[in-house]
Design a protein that fits this description.
The structure holds two protein chains of two kinds.
Chain A: H1 2-14, H2 21-32, H3 36-43, H4 47-58, H5 61-78, H6 88-114, H7 138-157, H8 160-171, H9 176-183, H10 187-205
Helix pairs in contact in A: 2-3, 4-5, 4-6, 5-6, 6-9, 7-10, 8-10, 9-10
Chain B: H1 3-14, H2 20-32, H3 34-50, H4 60-78, H5 81-86, H6 99-109, H7 119-125, E1 130-132, H8 138-142, E2 148-155, E3 160-166, E4 170-176, H9 180-192, H10 196-206, H11 213-225, H12 229-240, H13 246-258, H14 262-279, H15 283-295, H16 299-312
Parallel strand pairs in B: 1-4
Antiparallel strand pairs in B: 2-3, 3-4
The structure holds zinc ion (ZN).
Zinc ion (ZN) binds at residues 3, 6, 29, 33, 35-36 of chain B.
């Protein structure tokens, strides 16, 4: 474990911080020529946020790690096609967005096929070790978990596109125009997805407000 | 401004997405209209509810783990399909003894990921977008860079399978699972491809030909070693349908004892109970069940094992 931390520290200090646009551009150029170290430094400017976004979208650390990996492998394979007239972050998030959308689509088709009711009245066997940390106010904690769970479920019922637009706008605070660029679509289309998502969520969660 | 207009703009107002002129117009209307003020309060309350979604926590350990596995995947990437092909597909014979060996071996063999087709294949298949594997020679495959398998779909009508590859242009390979090229591509995908969804779809396609020894071995391999618990669970389901043998039994026993996911362990104990009912309970299985009935971290696994011990005990 110490080894990992040390390696981290050294890698972190090697990265340009704070990265100016010029620094980023030079990292991109070197990464495009196949320089792995430059590629590593480049993606470390964004990878924490990407992992957080993936966690929000899929909920489990294991799946988030898979999405993170898939997204950055795609970035690695296609970085030579990146043209500097676009912002790198927009281009990167487009890749991430597509990976998330693919995941959500696969998940929704799978859900239809494989969702089964829990057997033997044992709904919780998928949860691993029970959490026996003392809660300050168990009842309140339970309600708050319950609300969190309902929000997640309502989000999961949005269609993939609405889900991602809502995530990026409401939770990540991106501008509609930026989301439009990421999705390669008009601001109006993004607005429509946002409105539909908001409407559906209000229908499902209205009783909580 | 009318109430109806304001209602439409309220969402954008709260997100700060209106122009300043639009914003002023909204504020003026709100100042004068109680109904719209109440609509705004309602929307604000709704946003407060949404804020109660738990923050996804990215622990330093998770970040470190994600970075390391990406690093390994990028290393694998630099080796390629060509190496895989020239080595006579070592994955078919490769059976690591432990997770540690697996990690090492994957890096050593370095299965590249990512399909890139040679230009002339592109040209030939671009019109149709579909290639029969007969059109793809060994040397074509040798020059592929496997980068993006984007779909594996069994075709129930022909009993064949359709593999979609993203190259510069999307290309689909179609053929029977008995076709060695299709088989090799799928065996590669199930063992080494980075996308767990694709690995799962590939398992689905493979299980119809589980009597083939290579495919059988790949299913057991996925059950033991896939990093994704959902894929391991699916593989376990496929392994249960294999004809009973010592390797299947041992793999199930290993899953019960060592899998980190309680859902997989539960499925493993169920499978073992089913096979034990037919074949009788051997000594190692009896011992493992007795031990896990008290030591497994998951109460449901302990309960299942205890039940099995009672059933097959003595
Ligand atoms: Zn009004």
């Amino acid at each position: 474990m110490d080894g990992i931390c040390l390696e981290f520290a050294s890698k972190a200090s090697a990265q340009p911080s704070p990265a100016s646009e010029a620094d980023e551009l030079s990292l991109i150029r070197r990464a495009q020529e196949g320089d792995r170290a430059a590629f590593d430094a480049l993606i470390r400017l964004y990878d924490q946020n990407v992992l957080r976004l993936a966690m929000q979208v899929v909920g489990s650390p294991e799946q988030a790690r898979d999405l993170y990996q898939e997204a950055f492998l795609k970035v690695y394979r296609s970085i030579r096609h990146f043209r500097a007239e676009a912002k790198f972050s927009t281009w990167l998030y487009r890749v991430v967005m597509n990976v998330c959308l693919d995941h959500l689509r696969r998940q929704s088709t799978r859900k239809e096929v494989t969702m089964m009711p829990p057997e033997d009245g044992e709904p919780e066997f998928f949860q691993s070790v029970p959490d026996d940390r003392p809660a300050l106010d168990p009842e309140r904690a339970a309600t708050s978990n319950e609300i969190g769970r309902r929000i997640q479920e309502a989000l999961a019922r949005l269609n993939p596109r609405e889900r991602m637009v809502f995530e990026l706008k409401h939770y990540q605070g991106l501008k509609l125009r930026a989301i439009g660029e990421i999705c390669k679509t008009s601001e109006q289309t993004v607005k429509n997805s946002l409105f539909r998502a908001t409407q559906k969520l209000r229908m499902e969660l209205g009783d909580l407000a | 401004m009318e109430c109806r207009e304001l209602e439409e703009r309220l969402t954008l107002l709260l997100y700060g997405e209106l122009t300043s002129a639009e914003q002023t117009a909204c504020e003026e209307h709100l100042a004068a209209c109680a109904a719209c003020r109440s609509a705004r309060e309602k929307l604000e309350r709704f946003h407060k509810v949404l804020a109660r979604r738990p923050e996804a926590e990215v622990s330093p350990a998770l970040l470190a783990e994600a970075r390391m596995s990406l690093d390994e995947a990028l290393d694998r990437q630099q080796h390629g399909w060509r190496a895989l092909w020239n080595n006579g597909l070592p994955i078919l014979r490769f059976q690591p003894a432990s997770g540690f060996a697996l990690g090492l071996t994957l890096v050593l063999f370095g299965f590249g990921v990512g399909w890139g087709l040679r230009p002339h294949i592109n040209a030939r298949t671009a019109n149709l977008g579909v290639a029969n594997t007969a059109d793809v020679s060994n040397s074509d495959l040798q020059n592929m860079r496997i980068s993006d398998i984007s779909g594996v779909v069994p075709d129930p009508q022909t009993g064949g399978v359709k593999v979609t590859l993203d190259a510069e242009r999307r290309v689909t390979l179609e053929g029977s699972l008995d076709d060695p090229k299709i088989q090799q591509v799928l065996l590669y995908a199930v063992k080494s491809y980075d996308n767990p969804g694709i690995r799962r779809d590939t398992l689905d396609a493979l299980r119809s030909h589980a009597d083939n020894p290579n495919i059988r071995e790949a299913l057991i391999y996925a059950m033991r070693h896939d990093p994704n618990a959902g894929v391991r669970l699916e593989a376990l389901g496929a392994v249960c349908s294999l004809s009973p043998s010592a390797d299947v039994h041992n793999a199930l026993l290993e899953a019960l004892q060592n899998d980190t996911n309680p859902g997989v362990r539960v499925a493993a104990v169920d499978a073992l109970i089913a096979s034990t009912e037919k074949e009788g309970c051997d000594e190692p299985t009896a011992q493992a069940l007795a031990k896990l009935a008290t030591t497994d971290t998951n109460p449901y696994v302990r309960y299942k094992c205890a039940n099995a011990v009672m059933k097959f005990g003595k």
